[in-house]
Amino acid sequence: MHSELIEIRTGTSETVRDLTSEIDAFLRASGADAGLLNVWVPHATAGVAVIETGAGSDDDLLTALRELLPADDRWRHRHGSHGHGRDHVLPAIVAPSMSVPVLAGRPALGTWQSVCLVDTNVDNPVRTVRLSFLPG
């Protein structure tokens, strides 16, 4: 198994951040051919998703999350910015990990699919993501 922790700068606004370039570089460096890629976000307020990016779906996901998890005073978890409690509920909806098949050294994703970090927590501008490759 080959594993690496990468740092992602998400800034101070909600984001869906495409991890394709980091994943491709990791798989090349690990000499991956066939197996499984595990993507893990070791944070209580972020997740990972497979979604199309660049055509508006990433913004649509953030809009849907804002509607489902509004940043208001309903949350019992109340430290941080206004409505921050919703960020702690996010990983129950957008899971903090996923596994993706790897074939011929590339993630076996569909044409429009990308693995993305989903971060609604504006209080933490830097995130870490653990990438692990398990040869098959």
Total domains? 1
Rg (CA only): 15 Å
Average pLDDT rating: 95
Distance N terminus to C terminus? 10 Å
Q: What's the helical proportion of residues? A: 10-25%
CATH class: Mainly Beta
Provide the CATH architecture. Answer: Sandwich
Coarse morphology:
elongated
> Helix count, per DSSP?
3
- SSE order, one letter for each helix or strand: EEHEEHHEEEE
Strand content: 35-45%
Residue runs with pLDDT of under 50 for 5 or more positions = none
Full CATH superfamily name: YjbQ-like
What is the spatial order of strands in the main beta sheet? 1-8-3-5-6
Question: What report would you give on this structure?
Answer:
This protein is 24% helix and 36% strand. It starts with a strand and ends with a strand. It is built from three helices and eight strands; from the N terminus they run ββαββααββββ. The longest helix is centred in the middle third of the chain and has 12 residues, at 57-68. By secondary structure, the protein is of the alpha+beta class. It has a single domain, classed as YjbQ-like (Jelly Rolls, Sandwich). The strands form two sheets. Strands 1-8-3-5-6 form a five-stranded antiparallel sheet, covered by helices on one side. This is Secondary thiamine-phosphate synthase enzyme. InterPro entries: UPF0047_YjbQ-like, YjbQ-like_sf. Belongs to the UPF0047 family. Pfam families: YjbQ.
Features:
5-stranded antiparallel β-sheet; 136 residues; 3 helices; 8 strands; alpha+beta; 3-stranded antiparallel β-sheet; elongated; Jelly Rolls
